[in-house]
Amino acid sequence: MRSRTRPDSAPRHRGTALLALPITLAIRIFRPSGRNQVADHTVEFVHMLRSGIGLAATCWLIWSYPMRESAASLVAERLSDTFATAGVLLVAGPLVVMGFIASSRPPVRTVYWRRLGGPIGGVASLFASALTLWLLLKDDGGIRLTQMLGPLQFVGLIAVLAAVLFATVFGLTAVVLSVHYVFRTGDIHQVLPPALSSLLAWLTLLVQTTDEVAAPAGVQLLFLYGAPLSITLLSGWELQRLHTRFGVTVRRALGR
User: What is the pTM assigned to this prediction?
Assistant: First the structure.
C-alpha cells in the first residue's frame, strides 16, 4: 500500500533545507579537496578521539567544580576563544604558508602557488560573511536600506533578515571548520596542517583562560597546557607517520 505524505511535509523539508544551506556551503568551501593528500583513516580517528576526550574532560571540569559565571557566559567565552583561534590563524597562517612556498624549489613552488585557490577562497568567504553582518547591523544599516525601498519595505526587511541569518550561520560554521581544517592548507601540501596546528595551539594559549571554573591551580594548568601539548604530540606523530608510511617529509615537500 502506497504511503501518503503529509501535506505540510514538503514545505517543512524545504525550510530545513534552506536553514542547512549556509552550513552545507561552508562545508563545501572549507573541507579540503583531498586531491593532494594521502588518506590515513587512523590519523582521522585519532583526531576525532582527541576532540572527544577534550570535550569529555571539559564537561567533567564543569561538572566537578563550581562555575564562577553563568552557563551562557561560559558558552560565550568558549565561542570567543574559537573566534580568537581563527583570528590567530588568519594572521600566522599566511606567514607560514608564504614562508613554506618561498622556501620550496622552483619546480614545486609554481605548483603550490596554483593550489592557493582553496585557502584564499575560504578566507575571502569568511571576510564576506563578516562584512555582510557589519554592513547590515552597524548603525541599523539594514533597516535604513529597507526604508529606501518605499512600498517594497516589507520585502526588503525579509531579505535583510534572511541575509543576516544566512551570514551568521555561515560565519559560525566557517570559523569552526577553518580551525578544524586549518583553512584548507592541506590542499597546498599535507605537511602544512599538522605543522600549523601545533604553532596555532601555542599562539592561541595567549588568549585562552580557564578561570571560569573554581578549580585548583594544578587542574587549571593541566587544562590550559593540555590542549597545546596534545596537539603538538599529535602533529609530530602525524608527520612521523607521513614519513614512515608514505615517504612524505617536509624536506621532500620543499623539493630538496
Answer: 0.77
